[in-house]
Write a structure and sequence with these properties.
Oligomer: single chain
Keywords: Oxidoreductase
CATH topology: Rossmann fold
Protein name: 3-oxoacyl-[acyl-carrier-protein] reductase FabG-like
Number of strands: 7
Number of domains: 1
Helix content: 40-55%
InterPro entries: KR_dom, NAD(P)-bd_dom_sf, Sc_DH/Rdtase_CS, SDR_fam
Bound molecules: nicotinamide-adenine-dinucleotide
Pfam families: adh_short_C2 (PF13561)
Strand content: 5-15%
CATH architecture: 3-Layer(aba) Sandwich
Largest sheet: 7 strands, parallel
CATH class: Alpha Beta
Organism: Nicrophorus vespilloides
Structural class: alpha/beta
Shape: globular
Distance between the termini: 40 Å
Order of helices and strands: EHEHEHEHEHHEHHHE
């Protein structure tokens, strides 16, 4: 698989799945724009990519104007945009009894509204290149889990966004798909407030909650994102593809 001559934007590229995705696309020959909020972390990931074909831009997706900054930066750096990976996201714990509408707003703003907005800015350029979009959703988008209510809602909304805009953009030959990871080892859970001990137990439990008997690695999501973005997936659009060791197919028994 080669992405020679392709220009890819990866949001949330300073850590976890986004970092692995940026590095993977770079290894496959793409020019990559990494974006995130932390300059030092972005720089550290950029160093693991091809020097000539990699740029990074600091942007906060919760600021509307930063979406324009990301797209303008990309066009200025590489002249076009072929692939948008909407990866940045946040997780917070909370049930209908313990969360409030402020948590709902924080999660929906980052996991859905910011993606909606950045995509509207990027789409005219993706139409020009007949490019494509890969959204990073979650198994929480396709299955219900207690204790992460707003997060589940945000990822379900993202899956519907994927399907709807896939239909809207198909006549223009722009494909739109999502990956739906299960538990992947990154910092997102600890960032959401899980203690080391709770996280250790959560990862241990993944041996039984994921059919393949283990959590996943960011690189396994990155390779699936690249597959969906590549010519090998030229007849795939509107798909929500689990990368979850079979978790979505399991039932309690
Ligand atoms: P992560 O915390 O390492 O990555 C999320 C990235 O998004 C971070 O770099 C963070 O700084 C960035 N981000 C958050 N808010 C932002 C904002 N307002 N502006 C710019 N950047 C922002 O965790 P990750 O696991 O790599 O998460 C990446 C994506 O994968 C998320 O959308 C997450 O929901 C999804 N996901 C993760 C898992 C998992 O188990 N790790 C499972 C399913 C889905």
């Amino acid at each position: 698989m080669s992405f020679n001559g392709k220009v890819v934007v990866v949001t949330g590229a300073s850590s976890g799945i986004g970092a692995a995705t940026a590095i993977h696309f770079s290894n496959l020959g793409a020019s990559v724009v990494l974006t995130g909020r932390n300059s030092e972390n972005l720089q550290a990931v950029a160093k693991q990519c091809n020097e000539e074909r990699t740029k990074f831009v600091v942007a906060d997706l919760n600021k509307d104007e930063d979406a324009n900054t990301i797209v303008a930066f990309t066009l200025n750096a590489f002249g076009k945009l072929d692939i948008l990976v909407n990866n940045a996201g946040i997780l917070e714990m909370g049930t209908i009894e313990t969360s409030d509408v402020n948590q709902y707003d924080r999660i929906m703003n980052t996991n859905m509204r910011a993606i909606y907005h950045l995509t509207t800015v990027a789409v005219p350029h993706l139409i020009e290149t007949k490019g494509n979009i890969v959204n990073v959703s979650s198994v929480n988008g396709i299955r219900a889990f207690p204790g992460v209510l707003a997060y589940c809602i945000s990822k379900s909304a993202l899956d519907q966004f994927t399907r709807c805009i896939a239909l809207e953009l198909a006549p223009k030959q722009v494909r739109v798909n999502s990956v739906n990871p299960g538990l992947i080892i990154t910092d997102i859970h600890k960032r959401s407030g899980m203690s080391e001990e709770q996280y250790k137990a959560f990862v241990e439990r993944a041996k039984t909650t994921h059919a393949l008997g283990r959590p996943g690695k960011p690189e396994e999501v990155a390779t699936t994102i690249a597959f969906l973005a590549g010519d090998g997936a030229s007849n795939i659009t509107g798909a929500t593809l689990p990368v979850d060791g079979g978790r979505h197919a399991m039932c309690p028994r």
